[in-house]
Amino acid sequence: MKYLLALILLISNLTYAQAINERWLGVWQSGAAGKLTVSAARFGDCQWVNKVTTAQKKCLAYYNGKISKKEMVADLNNDLKNLSGWLKEKLITAADFQKMKAASESYKKVLDDISDDTFRMVFVDYGEMASPDGGSAYFLDKDFVYETSHVEGGIGPAFSITKYRKQ
After folding, report:
1. Torsions phi, psi of 116, nearest 5?
2. d(Cα 84, Cα 93) in Å, to the nearest integer?
3. What predicted TM-score, i.e. pTM, was given to this entire model?
4. Helix (H) or strand (E) holding 23
């Protein structure tokens, strides 16, 4: 009976544990963001773990959640709406508005190339070293890796996206 219980626990842990898909493996390059190196054991500077863990002190990467193009477009549109409101309320200068709008428009160009789909995310959790937003999320579409983040609060774009090409 004891062995049967141990076998059931092992199988249930394996069901939820997921090694990184081989499509991720390799070196990915983005002009502005630099390089992302992914192996079976590492995702950038973080350790790959096969399941979500809590209360860690180091940087970990794992599959966690999904994101759709529709959600990202909504986030970007919300940023553009907020920018106009901040300018109107004089919370930002015209020069700051132009810089932030240009950044948001560059994100729109990246989003235009993404499939109308929902994507499985790799979440990078920086642990105790994290800023308040806690980490970054990555997803694969076609032959590219995309890094996206959404930061709450403050004045400025909350949404960003970066495209990486495999070397």
Report:
1. -80, 85
2. 11
3. 0.82
4. none
